[in-house]
Structure formats: structure tokens, C-alpha cells
Amino acid sequence: MSINGSVGSGNAARYRGTEDGMEDLEAVNLAADWADISQGLRKDLGHQLHSQWIKPIQVGGFAEDTGTLELYLPTEFSANWVLDRFHDRLSLAWKIARSEVRNVEIKVHPGRRKLPELSFGDGRRPANDGSDTSMIAVAAGTIGDRGFTSSIGLDPSLTFAAFVTGEANVLACNAAQRMSATEQPQFSPLYLKAATGQGKTHLLHAIGHAYLGSHPRARIFYCSAERFMVEFVQALKSNQTIEFKARLRSFDLLLVDDIQFIIGKASAQEELLYTIDALLAEGKRLVFAADRAPQALDGVEPRLLSRLSMGLVADIQAADIELRRSILESKLTRFAPLEVPADVVDFLARTITRNIRELVGGLNKLIAYAQLTGQEVSLQLAEEQLTDILSANRRRITIDEIQRTVCQFYRIDRAEMASKRRARAVVRPRQVAMYLSKVLTPRSYPEIGRKFGGRDHSTVIHAVRLIEDLRQRDADMDGDVRSLLRQLES
């Protein structure tokens, strides 16, 4: 049974006597549904809108009696924005995913914590209300001497101690540590370049934590480039541009994420340019992060490009298998004494290759399912419960490649895949190849049939269902298929 679906009768029986257990499992199922919905919205809306407004949404409670599902956002501003623009789309997506959802309510998270307010000296508040974690202003002395941890919007889990280094990211990590050290860095600004999910945001948060550790009275400004533009426009509309500029230039450390989203905004670019110049002139520290190099930022004026690239551009490459394995092993320490077999760790590290965020998310989903259903973590459970993640990470495999691999495995001639022979030694490998073609490729049943000697689509359907059934009843067949899957996915 998939974690995205309803709980099977055996698992449900295990939870009937435990109300908390059922609630936990329901939360996992809601989270899995939201992951699917969010991924679909990302394709529809694009990365920029999704990252700014959809990604921060947290799934709240579901009331079965009214069919009402609650979705939470961190601030009143973001909740109202999503309610006005995306409520109908979110409602429809949830009703499709879960027929029992009749109403979707969008609210401010009840547990949100307000940030310290910054005063301009005349009693007015800055454009940023301090409650949106995408743009965080930290003033020394407003929260005592505790160093400002989770309450300022820096994720307490994203520290240098939690960052696993390897050949792909060691330069960026070392540069980030130098930027947060007590002594003045040799370069500024630091520009972190990495694809989505490779650790650049982790390093931004880690710099903030470490800098506050070595400079307890420091003032830090952390935001996304998109949020920077929103705040700048609000300051323009409210005639607070002078205060906005003064506030920006009063900080000791400026951290700006997703700088690629400032593309094309001339006034915001100009303000950022002047802010960089002012902070650098005073020896302040600046760190930017983006998914591309400065020279690849289209629509950015040359003067700003030169400022962004004048310090150090540190590239974070895609993690290799050794780094992925090390990251998984470091995360497993949080789940002790739960045991995750080495072959499962190796399987995840080998197959989830697109980015670290998906890798860790897959591990978390697998362990959550195992804990909430009482099952042991195994290779079979990983393959069953992580089908969406695994499918997205699989390289494009062709039917020709599948046929070649199956023929080598069973030691039969390649021509047998299209032949009319019905000997068992030929039919069964042919059926396995049809099954793998349906599992590993996006081809339809008729398309697969044509690649196997022009066979009818009903023949392919029969083969797929037969192999699925044999895998459940015949350990040898299941072992053969698993071995072939490993060969084809490696």
C-alpha cells in the first residue's frame, strides 16, 4: 500500500486502539498528499511563484465531520495573498487528491512567533513587519544575549555542524566558515552558486548562526531577493525609501537568497547596488546565493553583476554517491535506535541523485512510514513507498536497453523478444521485459507491444499483471526483477 493512499485494513487494525497513532498516520498521509499537490502547482505556476507563496504552506488539521482542511502560512500578509490568488486552485487540487475534503481554509499559523520590531526613531515601523521569515531583520540587544536562534527565522537545524562536506561542496563550506569568522574575510561578497537542493540555503543559515556566535551584538539582515523587491516596492508606496535604505545599511551581515529573482527590476537592482557599495565601504559582510553564476543572470545591469562577482564565487557541484551516502548516515543518527540496513542506505544514495533535499526527504518519508505502521525498514519497503521520488530520479531508460539487459540476464537471443516462440524459457523473459518496460518507461501498452514484435496491447497488460502477481508469490521471480531493476537503474 502506498503512503499516499488510505491505510490498509491490517495497518488500520493496529491503530484502532491508539488514537494518537491514527492521528500521526493521518498527518503523514496529509503530508504526502500535499507533497504531490505542491509538486503539481510548481509545474503550473513556475519556480518563482511556487517558492514565494506555495512552498511556505503548512498542512494543519482536517475535520472529518465538516470536511474542512486547514492550511497555514507564516504571516497575515502571505495568508491573504494566497487566499486571494490561489484559494480556488488549492481547493480543487485537494478535492481531487481527497474526495472527503469539501472546504479549504487558509490561515496564519497559530504558533507563529513575532520578531523583534525595528524602530526608525520616530515611532514608525519599517515596511517589514518582522514576522515573515523570508526577510529577517535582527537587531542587537532586543532579545538579550541569547544569540538569536530560531526566533529570528534562521533554521536552528541548518548549522555548519549539520553540514556534511565532500569534494562537491568543500570550497563553498570553507568560504562560508571564513565569512562568519571573527577575523575580517579576504573576500566580500561571497556568492554561492548551486542548483536547487544542493545546500546553498543551508550555508546561508549556517553563516548567520556562526556569525552571531562570534559577534553576539551583530545585526543581520536575511531575505530572499523576491522579498527584497516586495519590501522595496512597499517602501516606495509608503514614502519610506529613506528609512528603508537606512535600515538596510545599518546591518553588519547581509544574506540574500535566490538572487536570480531580482532579474529585470531596475529600481530594486539600483538600490541593491548602492547598498552593496555602502556596506563594502564600511567593511561589512555580504553573502548572496543563486542557482546560476553571476554572468548567467540575464536582465541584470553590468554594474550589479560586477559587484556580485568581485569577491568569491563558490560553486557547489552535484553531490557524488559518497557524499550522498555520508549525508544519509549523518541523518540516521537522529533516528537511533531505529535500524536502517546498509543496502537501503546504498539504494537511496544510488538512486536519488537529483538533489540533497529529495534524498533527505525520501529518507524521512521512509522512516516515518516504518515507524507509524510498525514495519521494519527494508529495500522492498523503500521501493514500494518512494515510487514517486524514485521515478523522478531515474535516468531515461529505453525499451531497447531493457530488452538487451533481460536477454543477457536470462541468456537468450535478442531476437526472441519479437519472436512468436512460446517456449517457457523464452516467454517468461519476454514477459519480464514487458513488465519492466511499463515500470521504467512512460510508454503506453500499445507502444510497448509494437516493440515486442507487434503484439497486441492486451498481451502486454497480461504480462504486466502476471509478473506483478508472480513477484508476490515467487521469491525467485521477485529476486530476478529486483536484480534487473538494479542493473538498469545503476
UniProtKB/TrEMBL annotation:
Residues annotated as domain Chromosomal replication initiator DnaA C-terminal:
398-467
Region (Domain I, interacts with DnaA modulators) location? 1-126
Q: Name one GO biological process term.
A: regulation of DNA replication
Domain of life per record: Bacteria
Which parts of the sequence bind ATP? G197, G199, K200, T201
The reply on keyword DNA-binding is: yes
The UniProt GO MF terms for this protein read: ATP binding; DNA replication origin binding; lipid binding
| Any single Gene Ontology cellular-component annotation | cytoplasm
Keyword set, alphabetical order: ATP-binding, Cytoplasm, DNA replication, DNA-binding, Lipid-binding, Nucleotide-binding
Q: Where in the cell is it found?
A: Cytoplasm
Does the UniProt entry include the keyword DNA-binding?
A: yes
Check the record and name the Pfam families matching this protein.
Answer: Bac_DnaA, Bac_DnaA_C, DnaA_N
Q: Where is this region: Domain IV, binds dsDNA?
A: 371-490
Question: What interactions and quaternary structure are annotated?
Answer: Oligomerizes as a right-handed, spiral filament on DNA at oriC.
What remark about domains does the record contain? Domain I is involved in oligomerization and binding regulators, domain II is flexibile and of varying length in different bacteria, domain III forms the AAA+ region, while domain IV binds dsDNA.
The task this protein performs is described as: Plays an essential role in the initiation and regulation of chromosomal replication. ATP-DnaA binds to the origin of replication (oriC) to initiate formation of the DNA replication initiation complex once per cell cycle. Binds the DnaA box (a 9 base pair repeat at the origin) and separates the double-stranded (ds)DNA. Forms a right-handed helical filament on oriC DNA; dsDNA binds to the exterior of the filament while single-stranded (ss)DNA is stabiized in the filament's interior.
**The family this protein is said to belong to:** Belongs to the DnaA family.
Name the record gives this protein: Chromosomal replication initiator protein DnaA
User: Which organism's genome codes for this protein?
Assistant: Tsuneonella dongtanensis
